[in-house]
Design a protein that fits this description.
This protein has 522 residues and is of the alpha/beta class. The protein is 42% helix and 20% strand. The chain has an 8-stranded mixed beta sheet. It has a 7-stranded mixed beta sheet with strand order 7-6-14-15-16-13-17, sandwiched between helices. A 3-stranded antiparallel beta sheet has the order 4-8-5.
């Protein structure tokens, strides 16, 4: 009996030992896993995501607007593990970012995102109409060489962004999270990730070899990554017009009004967006009724008759929105581990609707640069390599930026006779048709964004204006106005080109970064 009891005790002891060992192993493995995925930062109660384990994040993207959501899908489709942190995941409600030029649509197709303009009641845009003092001219996009689906698109900005977010989130390796990024995490001059606050208020840290900041025009992170020189030349007052038709269907309309242009374009099958430009940073007060009075007395008489009643009805309805028009040339400070994109990096006046075209073009450039890289962990080598991004993007981005800034200044009314002659010459030059309209509209549409073509057409307008002044008989006064016209044209375009960078814009092949090879893959 004693032998049997001793044997039972030995079996029980062995079983207990095995269970204890299994329990300790399980606890240790769980602790390691939690430490890897949700480690407590030593300096203060923030959890860490994207640690050193197999589920490590490759790229953190700050912002899921137009640039951020498109970039997340593009990089995710290439197999990158992407973590997107967006302040507000609800549908945005903006009055810009609603018109995508044909060049931008081609880039959207290249990224595989063209279906994002479907099922949102987006409208095809086939060109522009210019209206001035009762005259009008129609400028059609040169689309003859492209597939029949290629055209501009106009839509509600929020609907478009939500479609892109949904498409990005459909990829298993893309994680979209609502949270507010408060700072970049820097160590030894390198950006290692971001610190952010979740929707519930929890402080977290996300680490990745590359952080891409796309947090929009009001970015609070850009100062670390660039030297921002933000200019606010004017403000847009936005209204939605209903129950009316544009004079030229499926065309954007630019009204050369006094004191500055008015934009109209469809954003759905039943709505037309009207954007009234007001020069300067101050707009009439809406609370006191000054805004409604200004729109009815100054703007309404210059609105085409087809839109007038709907314009007045929109004012009476009270759904008036305003936003500052910002421009900011790209002035990057190359920083290991981080990159700026979208409106956080580069802005231009929205008159020409070129912002999304630049954003999608930049994403194509960045995707092509990152594609051959299997490893993003060598931050210094990656930073030097990605300096080529800033050069490769320049010809397209600078052309669209310069055109937007120059056209806005030309289209604004002035008490200066030389400036008004330039404005009149621009309208008449575009009205000539043929190469005189096809060249500029190809630039505007993003289909042929060549800097030399832009400069050639800009000064052709100035010379055309001087020629008009010399007819029928030149006089000292007319010659003086002509000289001031040319001088004014130089004063408009050369400062913009200088800010964009002459060498990178016109001679990118002379910049060493243009030829920078990818860092060696491990």
């Amino acid at each position: 009996m004693d032998a049997v009891a001793s044997a039972g005790q030995l079996v029980g002891l062995a079983a207990a030992t095995l269970l204890t060992a299994a329990f300790l192993v399980a606890v240790k493995m769980g602790w390691r896993r939690r430490r890897r995925q949700r480690e407590v930062a030593p300096e203060g109660g923030c959890r860490v995501v994207g640690g050193d384990g197999g589920d490590r994040t490759d790229i953190v993207i700050v912002g899921a607007g137009v640039a951020g959501s498109a970039l997340a899908y593009t990089l995710g489709k290439d197999g990158r593990r992407v973590h997107v942190i967006e302040r507000d995941m609800t549908e945005p409600d903006r009055i810009v970012g609603e018109l995508l030029q044909p060049g931008g649509y081609l880039k959207l197709m290249e990224l595989g995102l063209e279906d994002c303009v479907e099922e949102i009641d987006a409208q095809r845009v086939l060109g522009y109409a210019l209206l001035k003092d009762g005259r009008n001219t129609k400028l059609s996009y040169p689309l003859e060489k492209f597939h029949s689906d290629v055209a501009g698109r106009s839509f509600h900005n929020g609907r478009f962004i939500q479609k892109m977010r949904q498409k990005a989130a459909s990829l298993p390796n893309v994680h979209l999270e609502q949270g507010t990024v408060t700072s970049l995490l820097e160590e030894g001059g390198m950006v290692k990730g971001v610190q952010y606050k979740t929707k519930s208020g929890e402080e977290l840290k996300a680490y990745a070899p590359l952080t891409i900041v796309c947090d929009g025009c009001f970015s609070n992170l850009r100062r670390v990554l660039c030297s921002p020189k933000v200019d606010v030349p004017s403000c847009f007052v936005g209204l939605v017009l209903e129950n009316c038709q544009l004079p030229h269907p499926n065309h954007g309309h630019v009204i050369l009004a006094n004191p500055s242009p008015i934009l109209c374009y469809p954003i759905s099958s039943t709505e037309i967006r009207c954007l009234v430009d007001i020069p300067g940073q101050k707009v009439p007060s809406m609370a006191t009724g000054e805004m409604a009075k200004y729109l009815k007395t100054v703007v309404a008489p210059q609105i085409p008759p087809e839109l007038h009643d709907s314009f007045i009805a929109a004012i009476d309805k009270g759904s008036i929105r305003t936003m500052p028009n910002r421009s900011m040339p790209a002035a990057p400070l190359p920083t290991p581990g981080a990159l700026l994109m979208g409106d956080a990096f580069n802005m231009r006046h929205p008159l020409t609707g070129g912002g999304m075209t630049v954003a999608f073009s930049d994403i194509v450039v960045l995707r092509n640069l990152l594609k051959p890289l299997g490893n993003l962990h060598d931050a210094s080598s990656l930073c030097k390599y990605l300096e080529s991004f800033y050069t490769l993007r320049k010809p397209v981005a600078s052309t669209i930026n310069t055109l937007a800034g120059a056209l806005y200044k030309v289209f604004c009314a002035s008490t200066d006779q030389a400036k008004n002659e330039m404005r009149e010459a621009c309208f008449d030059y575009l009205s000539l048709g043929g190469v005189f309209s096809n060249g500029p509209i190809a630039l505007l549409s993003g289909l042929n964004p060549r800097p030399l073509s832009l400069v050639a057409h800009f000064f052709a307008v100035a010379i055309y204006g001087v020629g008009r002044l010399m007819l029928p008989v030149p006089s000292p006064k007319r010659m003086w106005i002509g000289a001031r016209l040319v001088s004014g044209a130089c004063g408009i375009i050369f400062p913009i080109i200088k800010a964009e960078g002459v060498r990178q814009m016109f001679f990118p092949a002379t910049v060493p970064a243009y030829y920078r090879a990818p860092p060696p893959m491990e």
